Amino acid sequence: MSLHKYIFVFCFLLLTSIIVSAQNNNQVIRSKTVWNDDKGSHINAHGGGVLFHQGRYYWYGEHRLPKGDAPSGGVSCYSSADLCNWVNEGIVLATTNEAGHDLERGCIIERPKVIFNPITGQFVMWFHLELKGQGYAAARAGVAVSDSPTGNFQFLRSGRINAGVYPANMTQEERAFIFDNDKYKEWWTAEWYRAIDKGLFVKRDLESGQMSRDMTLYVDEDGKAYHIYSSEDNLTLHIAELTDDYLHHTGNYIRLFPGGHNEAPAIFKKEDTYWMIASGCTGWQPNEARLFSSPTMWGPWTQHANPCIGTDAAITFGGQSTFALPVEGANQLVIFMADVWNPDNLIDSRYVWLPVEFQSDGTPTIAWSEQWSPLDFVVQPEPLFSLFEE
Ligand code: GAL
Fold first, then answer.
1. Which member of 89, 242, 324, 332 lies 3.0 to 4.6 Å from 266 by CB, making a disulfide possible if both were Cys?
2. Considering only CA atoms, which residue is closest to atom 9 of ligand 1?
3. CB contact at 8 A, 113 and 169
4. 120-148 pLDDT per residue, tens
């Protein structure tokens, strides 16, 4: 190669590395655009949640494979110091070729969430699992653990929830009521809705355990953890307490809004109020978000107006909720995380991350923002460094 060709190649490589490092030093969040990881690939972590641990953020989500909605590629993890630049930590929970295994390739893993247990020192992942070849019929929750936030997670088991146990907020009268199941073969009638309200499906699933699909986890200030999931054929949300090691359910759980068709729950606490954002139930298509609040995890939960405001508020800006992330050190910042699903190519589903705003009465609202920066919420110079230093 002649000297001027060497110089040309050198200049080209220099320019490329400047562009790449400029891209890699992004400090803004642009919802719905392609978000590249440190290797330049679109982040593949859908239906996910973020764990903050020892100064670093860990984003876990569904690793989708090209085309279609199954099979699952496992759970992926990305890490970041600033919520804008993400390092691909790989697949932290993989499917397996072992025939008959709960995670046999061909299964569907959705909405994984990870929490840290200070008693055991373990990272605990819960996720929605559908068994290979069964569509969405299994409606199970799976659990896996790891000693490190970046895995690998060891799968423990999957199943339905709280078998043989009635929800704490089901009255004695409801528990004693005997349904004439033949009367409710036709769904969506007024009579059927009344029966759902009284616990028709809770009873149907009492012995096998309650169904669990869309889900999130929430750890309260006292260290108690809760599993919040769409149950009863996606008709009713349940909030179930986890044991102190976060690996089992205690049997203490409640039903929320029977027949309300709430999916994709995301929970955060602001001052003394628990807020929950959920979606309606329209598959991959976006719908209007729902907002609920309660003074305790056990209720009473109250429904509010759609928290989204402005253009496309009626379809949650094209997204579906997945997680609410309070950002430590950033004044008041809670990030609403949602997925803009592309069912024809789920890998290319995009992310909507927007800051939650709080009205003077404390009610959260979410407005569209073309781009914004978590740095805008950092008011003290000290936290800015401890929070955003690589
Ligand atoms: C949605 C749900 C997604 C996925 C999808 C499958 O309602 O929120 O997580 O399960 O259905 O159609």
1. 324
2. 214
3. no
4. 999 999 999 999 999 999 999 999 999 99
